[in-house]
Amino acid sequence: MKRIFAFLMLLGFLTLGNSWTATAQEDLTNDNTTEAVDSSAVVEEDSTATEPVEEEVVAPAPIEEEEVIEAEPGFHQQVKTKFIEGGWEFMGAVLLCLILGLAIAIERIITLNLATTNTDKLLANLEKALTEGGVEAAKEVTKNTKGPVASIFTQGLMRLDEGIEMVEKSIISYGSVEMGKLEKGLVWVSLFISLAPMLGFMGTVIGMIGAFDAIQAAGDISPTVVAGGIKVALLTTVAGLIVGVILQVFYNYLISKIDSLVNTMEDSSISFVDLLVHYNQTKK
């Protein structure tokens, strides 16, 4: 029994020793592997740290020179420049013609538009007033209405007691007066229409004289010598023609407006006389 027990104890010690040896070898192998891994990592870190990093050198972008764009002068600046280049004497006179002509034309336009009357409504009110209140009521209607047509009707009603013939003569005479009032100021607009181009042409002649004087003084006919005088001549001519065209447009509009008002006065006067004839017949 003792021998068997001793054999089993020896066998157990041998088995336990083998297991310890295997475990120790395994631990040693694991430690070696870990150290190898750490050493490789350290080597990689060292290699990474020691290897120089090549930085890409970016060449600076070429600086593009900004193009300086000169702002174009506006319309008013261009007109001012040409006005100065053309010479203030004649250009100022042409500008004065334009200002005065436009002032008169605008005043006439406002006056003629205010003189426009709704004649159909006026005749209807007159007929109603004559029927209900007689001549005095009709006078109140015409006096409270603005415009040349109402003024003519007022003059006709004031001569109604003298007969229809006197009414017609009064309408014709006072119609001429009202037409003269409508045409007031047009002669000045017509004057400026003629005067502005004339001043422009005068500036042209004087500019050409200056150009020939420059040629005579320089003894040369080069373009630089005569350019100044010719430029003045052309600018004054253009300015005078532009002013004449502008004022001519306003003048023609005023003439057409006056013709329209005169035609309205004549037509309404005929209807007014017929209305008075009918009133006298009903009154009798």
Strand content: under 5%
Please report the distance between the alpha carbons of the first and last residues: 181 Å
Radius of gyration of CA atoms, rounded to a whole number: 56 Å
Low-confidence stretches are 1-24, 33-55, 63-68
Order of SSEs, N→C? HHHHHHHH
Per DSSP E runs of 2 or more residues, the count of β-strands stands at 0
The description of the largest β-sheet is:
none
Class from helix and strand fractions: mainly alpha
Helicity range: over 70%
Structure, explained:
By secondary structure, the protein is mainly alpha-helical. It has a domain at 86-283. The chain has eight helices and no strands. Helix 7 runs antiparallel to helix 8 (223-283). It is rod-shaped and about 95 Å long. The chain starts with a helix and ends with a helix.
What are the main properties of this structure?
284 residues, mainly alpha
Provide the fold topology.
Elements lengths: L1 H49 L24 H11 L2 H28 L3 H25 L4 H11 L5 H19 L3 H33 L4 H61 L1
Helix pairs in contact: 3-7, 3-8, 4-5, 4-8, 5-6, 5-8, 6-8, 7-8
Brief synopsis:
The chain is mainly α and 284 residues long.
